Amino acid sequence: MSEFKLELVLGSNLKVYSHAALNFYFVFLIRRIILVTAIFALSEYAMMQFMVILYSSMAYLIYVGWVRPFKNDWNNRLEIFNEECVFICAFTCLLINSTRGLMSPRHRENMGWFFIFTVFINIVTNLVFITA
Known about the structure:
Elements (H helix, E strand, L loop, with lengths): L2 H8 L8 H4 L1 H18 L4 H22 L5 H26 L6 H27 L1
Helix pairs in contact: 3-4, 4-5, 5-6
């Protein structure tokens, strides 16, 4: 299949000359299926949900950081930034839930504000990237 036809199917920003980059949408979809399965199948086990999210996020970060599936470096950086925010939020949730008796309510509240700040920074960054 020619490069032009692959760009029409996969989008013009994906590296069509790299086999690892061509698997980007497949890896993205598999990760989403894992997350949805973890949310529903492990609904009684919050800690396991966070661990699945952390491990899948780490694997996805390694894949995107290593493969750099987009032609545009800014898109690669944004994808890595977004996944780092997901990782930080999942880790924050893990800390809040695993240290219930050990952490004071004030520290837990500060962790919650850190979570909200991380989400806010992620949204603002993505809005700036979209409008630029």
